[in-house]
Task: structure prediction
Amino acid sequence: MNKQINLIGGIALILFAAGAFPKLEWLALPGLILLMYLYLQIDKLGFGSKLFRISLIQLIPLLPAMGFLAYINLDQAAVTNNSMLNYLSIALIVGLLLFLTYTTYLVATNLLLLGKNANNLWFKISGVLTKVAAFTMPLMGLGLLFLVLAQPIFLLGCIIYKPSNSHN
Result:
């Protein structure tokens, strides 16, 4: 399982980096799937983290809500003619920010727990950055910036992960 985490972490880091380039942003989706798989594998190691479950809870409501907001953005005529739709979209954005703030905080505490139990500095740094992201999430751009910085650091931690003597 150790080599699998190292390999998948490397592939996910490459996909994460490639997704930042124009015309390659579609690579972010397989990178997200690999990240979720890494969370599942790390949760199975017995460090007490619940990264996969929290991330799944985070993704399930976010996907339809983001689809709705994208639809509203595409259909500008519907937005300008319907003030109720404007209020609904504002309420949805505020609700999503609060939900994302809370679940990001839960991910951060689990990353810090994982870093402590696995004795991995990269996981600890990723946990600190994710916690800063959670506290700055209401300032949308700043919170997402810290979250984007935390992801590759977590993946670097997966690449160099070696089980401690107590988890061999």
